[in-house]
Structure prediction request, 808 residues.
Amino acid sequence: MPADLKLLIRKLTLFFLPFVLYGLVVAFIDPYNFFSAPGPYSDEAKKKISYPLNFAMWKMLVYRDQPVPNLLLGDSRMLSMKPEAIRQTTGLDYYNFAYGGGSLNEAIKTFWFASEQVKLERVCFGINLNNFSSYDSKDRVSEVNALLDNPFLYLVNLNVLNASVKLITTGLTGKPAQIGKPKVSREQFWETQIEVITREMYTNYRYPEEFRGELQKISDYCRENGVELGFLVFPSHRELQDQVPAFGLEAEQERMLADLADLGTVYNFELANEITADRNNYTDPFHFKPDIMRKIVDGVWGGDRQFVEVHGR
Amino acid sequence: MFFNSLHYVLFLPLVVAFYFLIPPRRRWVFLLAASYYFYMCWKMEYLVLILVSTAVDYVAGRKMGTTDDKGKRRKYLILSLFSNLGLLFAFKYFNFFNESTRAAFAYFDITYNIPYFDVLLPVGISFYTFQTLSYTIDVYRGHREPERHLGIFALYVAFFPQLVAGPIERSTNLLPQFHETKRFNYDQTVDGLKLILWGMFKKVVIADRVAVVANTVFNSPGDHNGIQFIIGTVFFAFQIYCDFSGYSDIAIGSARILGVKLMLNFNRPYFSKTIAEFWKRWHISLSSWFRDYLYISLGGNRVGIGRWYVNLFITFLVSGLWHGANWTFIIWGGLNGLYLVMEILIERPKRKVMGLLRMTESSWSFKYLSVGATFALTCLAWIFFRANTLSDAFYIVAHLGDGLGDFFGALLARDMAVIRGVVKSLGLSQKEMIIAVLSLILLESVHFMQRKESLRDFLSTKPVVLRWAVYYSLVGAILFFGAFNMSQQFIYFQF
Prediction:
């Protein structure tokens, strides 16, 4: 072997050694249980840190190992629906496949991911006007799909790196990792949700023709495969409901409800009633408290129609 | 096999290792086999087209070498032109002309029965046919002797680093290198690896990420307005540059490891002060091909002034058509031709205005203005290049100013709802957008530094710690910030 070649191999080995060592360490820690092998940290410790850093990655990897035929898909509102509460009402196991800050785009992609893992039976999408919009096409699911196809991408994923570092530092210092935003008062947060977040969503609102088409494909798939398909429109606080006419989006909301009713069963809780009028039922204009969650479960799965209108197939 | 795939990461070291281990006399056989394998990874059947092109041009070249009779030599040149351009026409342009004719006939209510030719465009066909054509034209013009060794000639046509997307090499540069005995060389290997690294950075960190914005805007123009069109177009300008120059860097770097020097294909094009300069810095191997084999053949600038303009315009129109069988590419080419003619026409008035403003070509204000104006004109032309249809392109151009007042008003008022709305509607998350913008700043900073010397030369004089820190940063950026889940095919593969 020429001396030049030997020198090159030696230098390249030295250069790439830290990357190889890094890969080995991350694979050993395995913060999202990608390799499902025993490691230095418990599942509980991993979930505490890895899950809030990337809901989609954690949930998809859990689902890959333990698929369930009944799904809940959507954003943080659907995330607050407890599968235990549904089990108590129906006796059925549901997997809550919703993500905090989730988009419709992610819910659609998650549906197809789940359909590849197991024969689905019941699927419920959580959709309100604010996330039934082309404006939010956030996608954390494709990233996970890509690394499921190529484990190398898992090792070099920034979330995985972040979670690994936090697991190590938490393990070494014993202090819990700081994940999430600093808290502000409820009133301040409420105002921000209406004045900033809702304004941003509705100023830039665009009717999601593409997602409507994607939901049609899902509806066709469900019909062909005998999957029960439902859409849950959550009860927002009246102040948030009032933003729809304020931004001139009533026609879009009506069209959304009609379109969803063509695709599956719509459970519409977005109504003017004593639940949505009372601030005490909410943590912020979007998010209801657990008592309301139970009423929603009763409305969708328990047949109690007091606070819900049901449309569609 | 893509350059940014694991397949290639395994393929290249294996080829390099075997290449230097086998006896020099037989290396061409191995390199040719590796090149054919590389090509067959896309579609095995289309190798036949390369073999046909190779055989015809080899025979045409040899036959031209046996006679001084100009008439006979011309016949062999026509044979080469006919077969190469015939292949190109059949696989790339037939459907375009066929469908355009059908539309014209339909307009006059005339029946037209020639069916659509349902065929996949062979990858790299525009590149290798132009490369072999340059050989036969050079032989015909007496600029080089015919190649006697069929295997070496086949390797010239199919050399894998530049087979599918160039640089389009000249026989005078490439063929002699295949006759030389190469030895493994540490410095040139490291040099090649650095180029590959930089090319990969441009492709997977920048091009694939900014492509999301360009695709979002250009795939649904009806959903967007002025500021989004402007950002989408600027991002496309960088996507196509990073995608194609990244590919060229990897090609040149791969070849360099094997001891072969390919020509420079890009030279900081967005720092050009005129459109003419831009075309001396952008896709240099193709621009110089058109200059040497079409523009000069048409008479170049050694004709009357009107004919000169026509020559320029025709050259760019054909260059547009080379890129794709679509009216959008033809208009893009035509627009660039028009820019060049206009540049010549306004040269005198420009000088007068510069004199009045006491500006010289070396003043910074003149440089910034010129670079900015050239970039803006280039971007305007890119709209036609990227748009899915001609009507989309005209829609975008017509709506470039829509909502700009509102947006800048919101910017001045720091209305974050509107600003975040624009950013979010471009298809990238806030984090991804920050990475995209920072990497573009890095790219242009490197280009700015490179006006005096290449970054590799600059680094080579620095301490090893600094050099390795830069290499680690680049590898780390590729691994951790590479847009692997947004991965796009190299744009120029479609040509």
